[in-house]
């Protein structure tokens, strides 16, 4: 449709087939019919503006999703929003309490050594309910699950060992195992040590039968010092046992005093390696009081564990312990552990995969056995071995000497 206006104001409407004809206006003028000039196309929006529009729409959708997650629906489903976000807040608070008040406040200490997995049980109800009635709530529930599994329960991915180069220095495969319980635990461990091609085995609660069993294995040197044993494919040049007389008074009081440590100088490829085997005080003496409605034992036992751990750590550092292995009777989240042993690199925390539980007490499982590497040693691999019959599972670590004092 072509629209033509005369000067006098009269308007004509013509079609494209009328182009070339002449229209006669009432004022006497003749107006030829011509095609109107083509309209210019609007300029294309800049690419940046297009992306801004897309991002704006994505932001609006995300905001709507979060708003849906926060907004409590009317009716009986209102509890679901409060429960999901309240669970996330409770898990984050629990994380903070565990890492700051464990071995400082007795309820946090109980959870430090207790079954942490029970806090995951609300997800059995909340996740299906969110999936059916409000999927936006799966986001805070996923965040809560990740906080529980990783910083609270201690899941490790071993990402530091991904793509690592083959060891080029002197490598030691160190095994730490508490062999209390089944008298055949030593026999089972000996078979595994052969498969693992271990170089050094540090054993705690090592009975005379265990020492005799390892003594029958050719190619190994063995030492038994009280309840601590060391078995080595490399020559053992010196042994020093920590004086435990300072712990006797505490032991008589029944709140501690059982820590033990021994230092071994092992010759590896012509150079000495200082390895310390430890078995530190157990929290069981304090926790057992709770079953008798006596929480007052927790404080003295925690203080005893702190003093003993600090003294053993100072004694181990006197001659620059390069490797420390044993039953520490505390997880890495413990304040005592971090104060006494934070200067070492925990092999499983650095290169292990999974939860790494080493203590099996039925429905309670924690990682309290460790292999620690001092300066100059790199951790290449760490894993927890299978059950050998003890109530502890062995820890295996590959350490490579990279140099240094």
Structural overview:
This protein has 405 residues and is α+β, with helices and mostly antiparallel strands. The strands form 5 sheets. A 6-stranded mixed sheet has the order 7-8-6-5-18-17. A 6-stranded mixed sheet has the order 9-10-11-12-16-13. It is built from 12 helices and 18 strands. 36% of the residues lie in helices and 23% in strands.
From the N-terminal CA to the C-terminal CA, the straight-line distance is 94 Å
Uncertain segments are: none
The SSE string, one letter per element, is EEEEHHHHHEHEHEEEHEEHHEHEHEEEEE
Relative strand content: 15-25%
Residue share in helices? Answer: 25-40%
| Mass-distribution shape | elongated
Rg from alpha-carbon coordinates: 36 Å
Mean pLDDT: 86
Strand order across the biggest sheet?
A: 7-8-6-5-18-17
Individual helix count? 12
Helix and strand content put the structural class at alpha+beta
> Could you describe the largest sheet, including whether it forms a barrel?
6 strands, mixed
Total number of strands: 18
